[in-house]
Every structure is written in C-alpha cells, then in structure tokens.
Amino acid sequence: xxxxxxxNQPRVAEFTVECFPDISQIHLxxxxxxxxxxxxxxxxxxxxxxxxxxxxxxxxxxFLGSLSIVDILSASNILPTLLSMIFTQQKTISFNGCIAQxxxxxxxxxxxxxxxxVMAYDRYVAICHPLHYGLFMTIKHCTLFLxxxxxxxxxxxxxxxxxxxxxxxxxSVQVNHFFCDISPLLKLSCNDTTxxxxxxxxxxxxxxxxAFTLTLLSYVFIINTILNIKSADGRRKAFFTCASHLTxxxxxxxxxxxxxxxxxxxxxxxHDKLFSFLYITLIPLLNPPIYTMKNKQFKEAFLRxxxxxxxxx
Length: 313
Fold this sequence. Notes:
By secondary structure, the protein is mainly alpha-helical. It contains 11 helices and 3 strands, in the order E-H-H-E-H-H-H-H-E-H-H-H-H-H. It is 74% helix and 3% strand.
C-alpha cells in the first residue's frame, strides 16, 4: 500500500513503544484492563439495547448506536495492544502495524467529530422544527448521514499515513508514547517534517472546524429556541433532550483540543501520554452512562428486555 523507503534509507522493521515505564506494571495492567472491559461492556449494552428494542429504532438512538461502535473500535485499536505490551513486556510493534494503528486512530477520531455534528443536527431538528422531524430525519436520511460520516472520515487519515510511512527513521525507533501517534513518530524522523506538520494542521482544521461549526450552529439555534419557550417546564424538557449530547460534546472537544492543538516542537511526552490516555479512555467510558442513566426510554427498554429474558427462563 505504501512506498516504505525513502532516500535509500533501509526500511524500519519495527518500533519499540515506551508505554509508562515509571508506573507499576501490575497496577497499570489492572487499571487498563478494567477500563477497557468497562468501555466494551458499556457500549455493547447500549448498542444491543438499541438493536433489540424496536421502540429505540429512531434516528437519535441509531446515531447513538453508531457512536457506541466508534467508541468500541477506537478503544480496541489501542488498549488491547497496550495490555499485551504491559503483560508480556515485549513492547514492540511492526512498522506496518504502527502505520495501521495511526490510520485507525485518526479515522475513528474523525468519525466521532462528524457523528457528534450529525447528532447535534438531529437535536436541532427535534427542538427547533419538531413538526417536521419525521420529514427531515427519516431512516433513509439517517442511513445517508451515517454512510457519509464513515466514508468521509476514512479519507482524512490517508495523507497523514502516506507521509509518515515514507519518512526515514534513522536516529531511533523508540516511540516515547503508548501507541503510534503523529507527534512522537515525527520526532523520530531525520527528515524535514514541516510539510507534514502543515498538512496535519490544515486537514485537522478542515475536519475539526467543519464539525465544530455545524455543532455550534445547531446549538445556537437550539438555545435560542429554548429561551423563547414560555413555560419553565417546557424549557427544562427541551434542554433535557440535548443535555446528554451536549455533555459528550464538551468532554470530547475539551480533551481533543488539549491534546492536538499545539506544534510538534512543544511535544512533551509525559503530558501527551496522560492526555492521550484520558482522550482514548474517558469519552468511550463515560458515553454509555451519560446517554442512559437519566434516559427514560432506555430504562423502559432495559425493563422490557429483562422481562423477555425472565420469560425465557
């Protein structure tokens, strides 16, 4: 897929990933394992609940089911490999494996950006144009949004991975991180990486600003509509319909901006490891309780599923 050698430099066979050498490996393994199991079980529960219960086959929950899949895949791209490295203490990853991990990391990040924007638009239609919701947000429209989201997100990481795959790594192959991310890989190259940094910021800005602008505009109209509702109970109900999504957006953009909005020259390994770990684990771990804990429809769906299982027994 890639031309993996440049300037007659030999191809790097594998990278050594430093992970977290200063932390007790046993404690680290237990923590990462618990978090990963929590992410998988929480998001699978949400996805299965939406899939099995026909009452939840609406655009809002279909998008939420897709978000659960993104969270599972995003965590599974990195955490199982990290667990294996901690458990075996064989902290190496093949060159192609590293590039694949980088591509998937960017891909799932972009998918979540776009998906959160689509979910914001869904809430905008539901609150600002409730009488036309059935017209604007049909299952067909829902499918088109999802196909567009996953397809468009798949294109954004291509240039990043092609550029990085064609770099020469002639000084070191030790990645000072716990997975293959852009900044630590650029630090290892003996090439001039200015053009890659520029491309990274430009492409990242296009994706991030597009998704952020759509999300922000949706919430500007939503807040304006809520403020114009005369009754306090009506305002509360309207706000409640988008509160979970807004919480998820704030957490996602907050961790994403703190991690990615800075030049490679200011890259601080320990700082980036901690923020990357929070970014990779916090959002997918918290999304299931954020969207379900105070959701009446989800509680009713789980009760229906519980009755079905009890009857079968």
